[in-house]
Amino acid sequence: MKEARATQKQQEKEKQQEKAKKRELYELKAANKLLKIRQAEERRVERDRIKEVKMQEEVAKAAEKQCEKEEKDRQKALQITQKGKRKASRAPAPKKKRQKTSSGGAAFVEASAPTLAPPVRTTSRGRNVHLPAKFK
C-alpha cells in the first residue's frame, strides 16, 4: 500500500510539474506575442514619424522654391520696366561693306604636264573606292 501511495504521489507531482511547465510555456508565448505586437507598433510609429518629417521637409523645400521663384519673377518684372525703349524702334546699324578682291591671274598660262589621276583608294577589305562626280 505504501508503495502505491508513493507512486501515486510521484505521479501527481509529475502532473503538477507538467502543468506548471505548460503554464510557463503558455505565459512565455503570450509574453512573446505581446512583445512582437509592441515592437511592430513601435516600428509603425517610427515609420509614421519619419514620413511626417519627410513631408515637412518637402513642404519647406516647396515653400523655399516658391519664394525663390517669386523673387526671380519680381526681379524680372523690375528689369522689364527699367528696360526702356524697344530695340526694334532704333535705327538699324549700317551694314559693313565687303572689300573686293582682285584676281591676280597671269596674262598667259604655261602649258604644264598633264596631271596624273590620283591613286585608287582601297578599303581595308581590299575593294576600290570611287569618289562620285558631284564630290570631285
Spatial shape: elongated
Alpha-carbon Rg, integer: 50 Å
The largest beta-sheet arranges its strands as 1-2
| Run of helices and strands | HEE
End-to-end Cα distance, whole Å, is 131 Å
Strand percentage lies at under 5%
Mean of all residue-level pLDDT scores = 86
Number of helices in the DSSP assignment = 1
Task: Name the structural class.
Answer: mainly alpha
Number of strands: 2
Task: Please bin the fraction of helical residues.
Answer: 55-70%
Are there runs of 5+ residues with pLDDT below 50, and where?
Answer: none
Major beta-sheet overview: 2 strands, antiparallel
Biased composition (Basic and acidic residues): 65-76
Biased composition (Basic residues): 83-100
Region (Disordered): 1-23, 65-136
